[in-house]
Amino acid sequence: MSHNHYIRMSLDLKDKHITFEENFCEEKKINGVNSKVYLATLIDRFHLV
User: Fold this and answer.
1) Is 49 part of a structural domain of the chain?
2) How many Å apart are CA 19 and CA 29, to the nearest integer?
3) Residue 35 forms part of a structural domain
4) Residue 34: strand pairing partners
């Protein structure tokens, strides 16, 4: 299975329109707290013509 499947499963995400790049996680200090930030793309399933 793909890394996208395992990430969605571990984060309990149901939307299959969210995809993660190979380097999907980075650690940052946010407001003085060490945090893991997940980088994803929401695939647009609706196209306006």
Assistant:
1) no
2) 24
3) yes
4) 29
pTM as predicted: 0.64
Distances (CA, A) of 7 to 4, 15, 16, 24, 30: 5, 12, 11, 9, 22
Region 26-48: what's the mean pLDDT? 87
Residue 11 placed within a domain: yes
Whether 47 is in a domain gets the answer: no
Is 20 exposed, middle or buried (CB count within 10 Å of its CB: 0-12, 13-18, 19+)? buried
Give me the pLDDT at residue 28, please. 96
Average pLDDT over residues 24-35: 95
Domain count, the chain: 1
Q: Alpha-carbon torsion 4, 7, 10, 12, what sign?
A: negative
d(CA 26, CA 32): 16
